[in-house]
Write a structure and sequence with these properties.
This protein is α+β, with helices and mostly antiparallel strands and 164 residues long. The protein has 4 helices and 5 strands, in the order βαααββαββ. The protein has a 5-stranded antiparallel β-sheet, covered by helices on one side.
């Protein structure tokens, strides 16, 4: 397999997608923010001074997906038709799982947009909680699904989930 963002001289290059067919392309990504149980309790009770942690993180993630080409040099600017960011709270493990979804009809995939959404939503959670918990960690950032395009569909199970 050859890397697509390298030209014949070995230099970084933006891929030319002009000849690719327009297809519906979707991607999902995830990340996990681990924190102290007391911090999670504050988030769930909306008791942090900065406000609604998950609401702000959702908007930040959506905004990040729309700005991915500004953040990652060789990404194409995309006209996304759908971006969503959702959360799953695991109180037993003091974790907030972040799930992002991006969709478009276009000539290139949306995996980086989904990863940007999950990443920035996670970073926003940390930013909003750092005054009470400096030990937070982001883990499990990955693409969990992609479809459309030449390579077809890819599906990964949630990290930590039984893959029976």
């Amino acid at each position: 397999m050859q890397l697509t963002h390298i030209d014949q001289q070995g230099h970084a290059a933006m891929v030319d997608v002009a000849d690719k067919p327009i297809t519906v392309r979707e991607a999902k990504a995830q990340a996990c923010v681990e924190m102290k149980p007391e911090t999670l309790k504050l988030v769930m009770e909306n008791q942090l001074k900065k406000g609604d942690v998950l609401g702000v993180a959702r908007i930040a993630g959506i905004q990040a997906a729309k700005k991915t080409a500004d953040l990652i040099p060789l990404c194409h600017p995309l006209a996304l038709s759908k971006v969503s960011v959702d959360f799953e709270v695991d109180q037993a493990n003091a974790q907030i799982w972040v799930f992002s979804y991006c969709k478009l009809a276009g000539q290139t995939g949306v995996e980086m947009e989904a990863l940007a959404a999950a990443s920035i939503a996670s970073l926003t959670i940390i930013d909003m909680c750092k005054a009470v918990d400096q030990d937070m960690v982001i883990t499990a950032l990955c693409v969990t699904h992609k479809s459309g395009g030449k390579r077809g569909t890819y599906q990964r199970h949630k990290i930590g989930e039984d893959n029976e």
